[in-house]
Hints:
3 domains, 6-stranded antiparallel β-barrel, 19 strands
Amino acid sequence: MTASANHHQTGPARRRVAVGMSGGVDSSVAAQLLVEQGYDVTGVFLECWRAPGCRTDQDRADALEVALGLSIPFEVLDFKQRYHRVVVQSFFDEYQAGRTPNPDVLCNREIKFGLFYDWVRERGFEYVATGHYARLVKANGRRRLAIPADRHKDQTYFLYRLRPEQLGHLLFPLSEMTKQQVRSLARRRGLPTADKKDSVGICFIGDIDVREFLRERLGENPGEVVNAQGEIIGRHRGLWFYTIGQRHGFEVDQRQLVKLADGTTVTKHHLPPFYVIAKDAEHNRLVVGFGSEAYRDEVVIEDVHWLEDVASLGEKQSGDDGLLVRIRHTGELVGCRLTVQDGRRYRLKLDQPLKGVAPGQSAVLYKHQLTQDICLGGGLIS
Length: 382
């Protein structure tokens, strides 16, 4: 039986909860709801990054203003050194290795539900709460991570590396709310962050374009653009400026393309669009192909982390009673079949081909059970 795992106060003892407050509307409403539900709430701001153009000071001030309005204690934790060493440096290392990283997954594992979670538990708090859009449900006597009411804002993709034992000490107060409802409640309660613009993109980059940020830190490293047969057809500026499925940003020699073509697919009058289909970091080559070559119907994942016991999942049928996979935060859930490849890696056979399957990104698995889509875990696309 699956049921909502929301917590309510049932006795005189008020349960202590530390809520991560980013200065945005989501964590502000999460704190508001916890106070209204009778928890003993402390707001905590995590300072992870400081650089020109960074919004840390304003975000911290906004979080403090909300905490003062709620009459709750407020603390600031300095995680800048660990964040830079573990999250930011990994970001650069992955791009230099030809992969496309997802720093939000790493930040959640190492910082929000790593350092912060440990700090909270060591100080006797019963729960850690955040403004993530995720749901915790009870099934078979334990708590499980599931997709929330607002499927468009679902953030379970970023949370799949939580440890199973942590789920009993987490609260996601926004699990049954839509973003519109969150903002509406914030306005009704007079929260100062009610109409604050959502942060988008990678937190330590801010409003700077990712490619410009990478150029400032890594420079350029020009190389060859080749087709799927290895024939040189153009030039690129550096592998880290491109991701799988990207259509623009590289130079293609049209005359060379026509010369290599069979005269039907490519002619001087018809040059179809090319997409990045692979990155060869060893030879600094960018591999491009036609649209059909940008799709994959199989994915191999490694560095796999499970939230659920998946020993019996191998060779399961896909579909309503089987497995679903998501390869990007905003991606659709697609049916798949899971097989163990070599004990360390798993192969996913997809029900339908997907475009832009990028090594370094996460593939996150789900299983539909009763009315819930349970997050099973996932791994890095190899």
